[in-house]
Specification:
The protein is built from seven helices and six strands; from the N terminus they run E-E-H-H-E-H-E-H-H-E-H-E-H. By secondary structure, the chain is of the alpha/beta class. A six-stranded mixed beta sheet has the order 1-3-2-4-5-6, sandwiched between helices. It is globular, with a radius of gyration of 16 Å.
């Protein structure tokens, strides 16, 4: 298992944005500095916003793995904002949606209990997983966000999902050139959370 934990902090950073996701946030197949979380750190610094970024994303991570790992990460970094971007691997493995929902709920609650604002980032599956599972998988993120009163970005890859050229040869992971588009998409939902505690 590949583990990525990178702290990217500017000198004036007073608070931390924690990116807690899977390979889509870990920068799988590209240079780490090209990943959207690294570009987020650059944007925060460029816009003189007092935040640093810690990317604690792991390729292959499931919601169950994240639920186990999150408490220690929260304790270590004490983030002001948590971008919770897990679930894709649950869907690709056809794991029970009730378990994924419970894990995401628990992680959102843990982050809020630690004093962080939460942005839940959703995912969608290809249609070959069947219409019922695909529909219910996409819906679980909005269900958790509504229940836990968190911010929601329904689909991380929405700006590029229909562009074959935006993906590496595995058709799952975005190439470096489209990472700025992903960041711009995340930024719209993240920016309202960037406020003093």
């Amino acid at each position: 298992m590949f583990f990525l934990l990178i702290g990217i902090r500017c000198a004036s950073a007073a608070d931390t944005v924690l990116v807690f996701g899977d390979s889509l946030s870990a920068g799988y197949g590209i240079a780490v500095q090209q990943s959207w979380p690294a570009l987020l750190a650059e944007r925060l610094q460029r816009e003189k916003l007092p935040y640093g970024v810690v990317n604690a994303s792991i390729s292959g991570e499931t919601t169950a793995g994240g639920r186990t790992r999150l408490p220690a990460v929260l304790k270590r970094h004490r983030p002001a904002v948590v971008i919770l971007a897990l679930g894709a691997n649950d869907g690709l493995r056809g794991l029970p949606l009730a378990e994924s929902r419970a894990n995401l709920t628990q992680m959102a609650r843990a982050a809020k209990a630690a004093g962080a604002r939460v942005l839940l980032v959703g995912m969608q599956l290809p249609p070959n997983y069947g219409p019922s599972y695909t529909r219910d998988f996409a819906a679980l993120f909005s269900t958790v966000a509504k229940q836990e009163k968190t911010a929601l970005l329904p689909f991380l890859l929405e700006p590029i999902a229909l562009d074959d050229a935006a993906f590496q040869s595995d058709r799952l992971h975005p190439i470096a050139a489209v990472q700025p588009k992903i960041l711009d998409h995340v930024w719209k939902s993240l920016k309202p959370l960037l406020k003093p505690r």
